[in-house]
Write a structure and sequence with these properties.
Elements lengths: L1 H10 L2 H25 L1 H4 L10 H25 L3
Protein name: CPBP family intramembrane metalloprotease
Keywords: Membrane, Transmembrane, Transmembrane helix
Length: 81
């Protein structure tokens, strides 16, 4: 699978390669943002900037992580050409 991704990556134009890198970057941005929202109290001593209970904060983090994987799978399904 990784070999096929590498071959497909080499066949793409520079514009398609750039969009591929941006897609991967935003997957990691949403994933990291979701993890930061969930573990805010463990990472930073100050309170979360938006007033919300821990249940809502964890729910929001899970939604961000699910959205990142949704983007990831949708991106790779459209890039298999």
């Amino acid at each position: 699978m990784l070999k096929n991704i590498g071959i497909n990556f080499q066949k793409k134009s520079p514009n398609e390669r750039f969009l591929f890198i941006i897609g991967i970057l935003f997957f990691f941005v949403y994933l990291l943002l979701g993890l930061i929202v969930i573990f805010w109290n463990f990472l930073f001593p100050q309170s979360f900037p938006i007033e919300m209970t821990s249940t809502y904060r964890v729910s929001f983090g899970v939604v961000l992580i699910v959205y990142s994987f949704f983007r990831f799978f949708r991106f790779f399904n459209s890039n298999n050409n």
